[in-house]
Write a structure and sequence with these properties.
By secondary structure, the chain is mostly helical. 70% of the residues lie in helices and 6% in strands. It contains 14 helices and 10 strands. The chain is globular, with a radius of gyration of 23 Å.
């Protein structure tokens, strides 16, 4: 097995594992803070129980995310030494700022977990808000570093070396805002709908359960608006890709021929030999409008680019269709849930809608994984777009298949343990014989 394949596979598995904990680490503290705020406003002990359970879940995910993130940082240096050699001075700033946000989150998470009876109610709520905000900011800085890899800026390239480095300009690349917005909304949508879907499944069996009703109401408050807004951020991202990475857009849409009024291909199987997409549903002029908001605009096809800079078309096209398809279904369900609430109807009483929310529960995470396939695999063969090829950045060390298999087994084992801990600490309904939270601090 080629070393580059093993290195990319190990990095891909590590990212796929870490990203789940990262996005839940962004979304879950928001649920936690809302639950505590509602407890302090209403005195309802169920909200306190939810806040404490979700805070324990945030602690578990924070710990695992910290470990898997540390592994990723080592893998960047060990598997991609040439990349770190040239890119380190540039992406060092966003990673340093991410570290600052990470330690801020860790400090205030500790205050939140152990400060229930030791600090004032206002200080405790503020500490939770800091956890939620710093977690989101941490994710934004990581995405900014990745955005630079897609649209590198802030330097002068002289004889293959970076000079006149401007770290601020490097952070403000054209990809920074679209990627950060899209990823942050995805984190809230995925987490909110995952939690809402779990409690919706419980409510289908026991519609009057107050614990699940309270949890569902908070989760849908976070997940539904984010999922509804997400297609708008997707539109912003599509136009950035069209302008900055046209070959990636062509692969995403399996678009082979440059033309005006380009059609949008939904589904289908790209045939690179015949330069066409079989069995696709084609929307006339749809791609031109998606990319430029002009039905007659020209969109470059894959044939306009050398064959050796094409990303894997079939993989990118399939991942993009999965992301857009499931994301659109999530937005539709979110719209139905919000309209139902706006009309002051009880969402829990509508079984078909609750069943749809249960079906949506895993879709946010599937969309995130598919989206990162589009982002990372769609940049190939470049690790720094247009500057450094992935094959030139990989370590020459042989035998990488062994650590790849070991790390994959470790992640599967660790994921199973985390799932069991989350079930025990967060998802399991409180039993009647469990002590109820003290309401003395509600005011």
């Amino acid at each position: 097995m080629p070393d580059i394949f093993a290195a990319r596979s190990q990095m891909g598995v590590s990212l796929a594992f870490h990203i789940i904990f990262a996005v839940v680490g962004i979304g879950l503290p928001a649920l936690m803070v809302i639950a505590e705020y509602r407890w302090r406003r209403t005195g309802d002990a169920v909200y306190l129980e939810l806040a404490k359970r979700w805070s324990r879940g945030a602690a578990i995910l924070f710990a695992v995310g910290a470990v898997s993130g540390t592994v990723l940082s080592f893998e960047l240096g060990l598997l991609w030494p040439e990349f770190m050699k040239v890119a380190g001075p540039i992406i060092g700033m966003p990673f340093s700022l991410e570290g600052f946000a990470f330690f801020t989150e860790a400090i205030f998470l500790g205050i939140y977990l152990y400060g229930w009876d030791r600090i004032s109610a206002r200080a405790h709520v503020i500490s939770g808000i800091v956890v939620a905000v710093s977690g989101a900011i941490s994710g934004v800085f990581v995405v900014i570093a990745n955005a630079w890899m897609n649209t590198p800026r802030g330097f002068t390239l002289v004889d293959g070396k970076f000079t006149n480095i401007d770290p601020i300009a490097a952070m403000m690349t054209p990809a920074a805002f679209p990627q950060a917005l899209h990823m942050t909304l995805a984190a809230y949508a995925a987490t909110g709908f995952a939690v809402a879907g779990i409690h919706a499944a419980m409510l289908l069996r026991d519609p009057k359960n107050s614990f699940h009703r309270h949890a569902f109401a908070i989760a849908i408050l976070i997940g539904a608006p984010a999922a509804l807004i997400q297609p708008l951020s997707g539109d912003i991202s599509a136009r950035y890709v069209a302008a900055q990475q046209p070959v990636k857009l062509a692969a995403m849409e399996a678009h082979f021929e440059t033309m005006r009024g380009a059609p949008l291909n939904i589904g289908g199987i790209p045939d690179e030999a015949e330069r066409r997409t079989k069995y696709a549903i084609s929307i006339p002029k749809g791609l031109s409008f998606l990319a430029t908001h002009d039905f007659n605009a020209e969109v470059k096809g894959l044939d306009d680019f050398p064959r050796d800079v094409w990303p894997p078309v079939a993989i990118i096209h399939m991942a993009f269709d999965i992301m857009v398809g499931l994301g659109s279904f999530m937005a539709l369900v979110a719209l139905l849930a919000l309209v139902t609430q706006f009309r002051k109807r009880d969402v829990v009483s509508i079984r078909w809608l609750m069943t749809a929310i249960v079906l949506v529960a895993p879709m946010g995470f599937i969309c995130i994984e598919a989206g990162w396939v589009v982002t990372e695999v769609g940049r190939q063969p470049w690790i720094i777009y247009g500057i450094l090829r992935t094959a030139d950045a990989v370590t020459p060390m042989p035998g990488l298949i062994v650590p790849f298999l070991l790390f994959t087994a470790l992640y599967l084992f660790l994921g199973s343990i985390v799932a069991w801990l989350l079930y025990q600490q967060v998802l399991r309904s409180p039993r009647d014989d469990e002590p109820q939270p003290n309401q003395a601090h509600a005011s």
